[in-house]
Amino acid sequence: MIVQKIEINFQTKDASTMLVKSLQNLGFAILNNHSINPLLIEEVHTGWQAFFAASIDEKNQYQCNKKTLDGYFPFGIEKTSYGKTQDFKEFFYFYAWGICPENLREKTLLLHHELLDLGNKLLQIIDDSLPEKIKDRLSVPLRKMTTNTQRAVLRILHYPPIPTNKEGVSRAIEHEDLTLISIVNPIVGSGLQVKDHGGNWHCIPAGINRLVINIGDMLELCSKKFYQATTHRVLNPGGEEANYSRYSNAFFLNPNDEIVLDKEKTAGDLLQTHINKKLENYYDKFN
Q1: CA dihedral in degrees (49, 53, 59, 62; nearest 10)?
Q2: Can you tell me the mean pLDDT for 177-192?
Q3: CA pair distance 98, 83, nearest whole angstrom
Q4: pLDDT (0 to 100) of residue 2
Q5: Above 50 in pLDDT, residue 187?
Q6: Tens digit of pLDDT for each residue in 66-90?
Q7: Which of 23, 222, 255, 277 could join 145 in a cystine, given CB atoms 3.0 to 4.6 angstroms apart?
């Protein structure tokens, strides 16, 4: 049976209840009328759109730091979920402390802060929904896992037009995110699909004010699968739309390194393992 997805007006009194119900029944939630200023999203998008349109030499001035993974990732670097081919995209990992073009830092940092604030509110709602036996197993409450976190990262993505001679190209094959929760903003272009608990794929339309809330591997781990990680993908467009770029932002709310998620597994250990695997298996074209 396909469960109908709904968009949640985050300013209504029953928004928290609807959020939890959607996350539990579907595995994801869609928010509108939230706390993030759409004008800020638009400003940040416009700035980064210009960055991605710059020459490769200009962009490579900010190429990713292999130790911290902040910065610019060129085309053909990443293979999502250990895919056989690289995803057809370029992107920038922005941390509050990380590298960034100076003309983009102020607005991008403000957006990062607003997403972090919203993410913490969402974590509190999710924490409140947990059964007591699950809460008792947490090393600390979910909301406290991200207190003053330096690991939260905003991923700014550009998917270019699909070349006619590029067989086997995929914008992003199906995968889950390592984080506690991710907040995805599909700004321009279709293709984002999210899988529900019944195995059905849901198309998510683009929208400057639309946010998709996904459960990550870390939340699945520490909640003992009470909340399950969300599988999602980005399909290639067909027809005329294949000639246009797609732009999206994804905010990953990662906990502090010392947070114990399961037995002796800390968030820092999982993130470092994740980074090592990316360096070994994904990012095979770094200079």
Answers
A1: 0
A2: 95
A3: 28
A4: 46
A5: yes
A6: 888 899 999 866 555 545 556 789 9
A7: 255
- Strand 246-253 with 260-262, pairing: unpaired
Alpha-carbon separation of residue 236 from 53, 66, 131, 174, 184 (angstroms): 20, 29, 40, 12, 18
Rounded Cα gap, residues 244 and 223, in angstroms:
40
Does this model's pTM top 0.90? My answer is: yes
- Tell which residue, 122, 176, 111, has the closest CA to residue 8: 122
Q: What type of residue is 254?
A: N
Alpha carbon 204 to its chain's center: 14
Distances from the Cα of 67 to the Cαs of 133, 146, 149, 275, in angstroms? Answer: 38, 22, 18, 8
Question: Residue 82: what are its φ and ψ, rounded to 5°?
Answer: 60, 40
Burial 137-150 (b: 16+ CB within 10 A, else e): ebbeebbbbbeebe
Which tens digits make up the pLDDT trace of 29-63?
999 999 999 999 999 999 999 999 999 999 999 99
DSSP codes of every residue in 183-220: EEEEEE-S-EEEE-TTS-EEE----TT-EEEEE-HHHH
Whole-number CA gyration radius for the chain? 18
What domains sit in the chain, N to C, each tagged with a CATH number? 7-241+270-282 (2.60.120.330)
Closest by Cα among 157, 161, 165, 168 to 237: 161
Contacts of 92 (CB under 8 A, 6+ apart): 48, 51, 62, 71, 72, 73, 100, 155, 156
196-235 pLDDT tens trace = 998 999 999 999 999 999 999 999 999 999 999 999 999 8
